[in-house]
Design a protein that fits this description.
The complex is a heterodimer. Chain A is an all-alpha fold. Chain A has a domain of about 200 residues. Helices cover about 75% and strands about 0% of the residues of chain A. Chain B is an alpha/beta fold. Chain B is built from 15 helices and 16 strands. The mean pLDDT of chain B is about 90. In chain B, helix 9 links the parallel strand 8 and strand 9. Classes of the chains: A mainly alpha, B alpha/beta. At the A-B interface, helix 1, helix 5 and helix 10 of A face strand 9, helix 10, helix 11 and helix 12 of B.
Chain lengths: ~290, ~400
């Protein structure tokens, strides 16, 4: 029976779940809009973020939230390097060719990352045995771990929002999103901004990986299915939109949780994706426009 | 002229007949072939089993002098062929076809897992070459009336017989809540466990199947909390099980016992102290007194395989033991004789008495009940070789 307590519990769980979806989805969305690149390796960087967290936690015993201080800059640099080495050479192709080329190139890199990871660290799943005590508010059990992660995601989202609105680089990103040619005319260094966007996107993926390994387990082959889910969220929220990724993630998370409770866990994904189809039928461009 | 042709054909017939006869007589080795999931999604469970197969081959050839073949009244060396099926059904089928048609294997060993095994079993049936299935235990594999394979394990619906025997003996449990990951194997184990437990008088407080990709278990956990069963029984593979257990802790769910049907070392390392006192099903663990332990342990030592990490190692090894016994007891290396002998095996394997169900062809091995206590796995049932007393209720905070 649905009591107010259970209702709050379900909403809370859906929001927590959706928040983790949103973080990774935004990076994917930004890259797609700025560079016209569908970065299939996005989920692999999430997996690598989780793996780095796992290794650092196992080696140092550091609080995983402190590991974030290492993960974010490292993955921003990795993202920028990844763009320079693998993506930059194909960026000058015509739009449609670029999209197809980016899929082919990034699928190849994703496969290489999966196999290399499996070869070096073994194919077994890994998890970080870190937990925080849950607390009870009027019968509603709240997971401290998930809540902490959600708070961090919200903080990151707010930071990104202000970064995109106030900083020069952020304004440049928005300018490219609105009118690429216009941005070039006014002197914005588009290639440099594209590199920066890849850095931000992969940094977010690495951060999402850290949160992911705290909540679930990671294995070398989790990347591709995650990328597909994030693509769905991007479509739902509207590509290139920070708020869109957040809302898309929340819709998917809440729909999954409610469907699981009322119809059984088996229906969670089906209902979530039916919601996606419904939204896209009503608003084919997604819920929100660019940043 | 007719006479010349007659002599020519006669000479040719004698020539090729002689070649064929000498080929049959000159069998110099026994070829055992298989595929393993050395890469791909099941690689985590298979790990270094290819090394174990080679170590078995070396042991048999060097220490046993080969396997005895009744028809030749002498021992022949064994040669194993292992291909990587990449955890992929089509690749596995392709390689089994190759093992039969190109490599001319005398006997085949099954691959890892039911999904890979299912299509592969059509190969021995088509070419009439005997096969010993390793980890496959789904009734769907054995219910098709196929005759050219036998298996090591009992059907998956009997996965938890020993665990429920343990509960019967202790008489402390009244209710069980069941959760299953929706994969064919874990679903079958769950579907077998519920009637098995109900027949023994344990009330089903809750049951639900969740998709393998589930990452948020709130809805299930809320219902489980309301049902408050003595045991929460989770039929799942490791990633699902770890996520479920983590979230259950966040919800403050504290049943008297946690039971996970698959709880290998990656499960316990991902959960850390939260895996303490969890019970589950296990295959071979130190303490089992059965079979030629010296040989098995020597092979494990040589290949550096940890039985706590690779649960299936015992099962794959027993598949080799069945092949070994079948070959040595068979009248000849002819496929029909090997098959007949495989169906008739009755010996003490490292996993206990091993015989084949004469209707369906599956083996007799049932998973042992085990418990993870302070960083180590212990056998808790059958009691005659338990290495630790069952700790119930779970004292973990």
């Amino acid at each position: 029976m649905l009591t107010p307590t259970i209702l709050i519990q379900l909403v809370l769980a859906g929001v927590l779940q959706g928040g983790t979806y949103a973080l990774a989805a935004f990076g994917l969305s930004l890259v797609f809009c700025i560079a016209d690149v569908l970065n299939i390796t996005h989920g692999e960087f999430l997996m690598l973020g989780g793996l780095v967290t796992y290794l650092l936690f196992a080696l140092t015993g550091l609080n995983p939230f402190l590991i974030l201080i290492i993960v974010i800059p490292v993955f921003v640099l990795i993202g920028a390097g990844y763009q320079k080495v693998f993506i930059k050479p194909i960026l000058n192709r015509p739009p449609r060719q670029l999209l197809f080329s980016s899929i082919v190139v990034t699928v190849g890199i994703a496969t290489a990352i999966e196999d290399t990871t499996s070869f070096i660290w073994g194919p077994t799943v890994k998890g970080v045995s870190y937990s925080m005590p849950a607390f009870n508010v009027g019968g509603v059990v709240v997971s401290s771990l998930r809540l902490s992660i959600l708070v961090l995601i919200i903080a990151l989202t707010i930071f990104l929002h202000f970064y995109l609105k106030k900083s020069f680089a952020g304004k440049a990103i928005r300018a490219i999103l609105q009118n690429r040619e216009g941005a070039m005319v006014v002197g914005i260094n588009v290639p440099r901004i594209v590199t920066l966007v890849f850095g931000i996107a992969i940094g977010l993926a690495g951060t999402a990986g850290l949160f992911y390994v705290l909540l679930f387990t990671i294995g070398p082959f989790i990347g591709l299915p995650l990328t597909i889910r994030y693509i769905a969220i991007v479509m739902l929220g509207g590509s290139g939109s920070l708020i869109g990724s957040l809302v898309g993630g929340l819709i998917l998370g809440v729909a999954e949780t409610f469907a699981g409770f009322f119809l059984g866990a088996h229906w969670s994904l089906a209902v979530a994706f039916c919601t996606l189809v419904l939204v896209l039928l009503l608003k084919p461009q997604g819920l929100f426009k660019h940043v | 002229m007719k006479k010349v042709w007659f002599v020519f054909f006669l000479a040719m017939a004698v020539f090729f007949g002689t070649i064929q006869a000498s080929t049959a007589q000159e069998k110099k080795e026994i070829v055992v072939g298989m595929t393993l999931c050395l890469t791909g999604k099941f690689a985590a469970d298979v790990g270094p089993f290819d090394r174990m197969i080679k170590a078995w081959e070396n042991y048999v050839n060097k220490k046993q002098g080969g396997l005895y073949v009744k028809a030749y009244n002498k021992k022949l060396p064994v040669r194993t062929i292992v291909y990587d099926d990449k955890s992929d059904q089509a690749t596995a089928v392709k390689f089994y076809e190759r093992l039969v048609t190109v490599d001319k294997c005398d006997i085949l060993i099954g691959p890892k897992s039911t999904p890979i095994t299912f299509p592969v079993t059509s190969v021995p049936e088509k070419y009439h070459v005997p096969m010993v299935l390793a980890t496959a235990n789904t009734p769907a594999v054995f219910n098709r009336g196929f005759k050219w394979f036998v298996g090591v394990q009992q059907l998956s619906t009997h996965w938890e017989d020993y665990y429920f025997d343990l509960l019967d003996e202790e008489k402390q449990v009244k209710t069980i809540g069941y959760v299953a990951e929706d994969t064919p194997h874990t679903r079958e184990v769950y579907e077998g466990a519920i009637p098995n437990a109900e027949k023994r008088g344990y009330k089903t407080a809750f049951k639900e199947i969740a998709p393998a990709a589930t990452t948020d278990f709130t809805s299930i956990l809320l219902k489980l909390k309301a049902a408050d069963p003595d045991i929460i029984y989770v039929s799942s593979f490791t990633p699902f099980g770890v996520t479920f257990k983590k979230q259950a802790k966040e919800f403050g769910l504290k049943p008297r016992e946690w039971h996970f049907t698959h709880f290998d070392i990656s499960f316990s390392s991902a959960l850390g102290k939260d895996a303490n006192y969890v019970t589950g099903a296990h295959h071979w663990l130190p303490g089992l007194p059965y079979g030629n332990l010296k040989k098995f342990q020597e092979i494990l030592k040589e290949t550096n395989i940890d039985t706590e990490q690779y649960l299936d190692v015992g099962i794959h090894y027993v598949a080799l033991e069945i092949a070994e016994v079948a070959i040595e007891k068979a009248d000849s290396l002819k496929p029909e004789d090997l098959l007949k002998s495989a169906w008739a095996v009755n010996f003490e394997s490292i996993l206990g008495p091993m015989y084949i169900d004469q209707t369906l062809g599956h083996g007799s091995f049932k998973q042992f009940a085990a418990q993870y206590i302070d960083g180590k796995y212990y056998l808790i049932f059958p009691k005659k070789f338990a290495t630790h007393k069952h700790v119930y209720p779970n004292p973990a905070p």
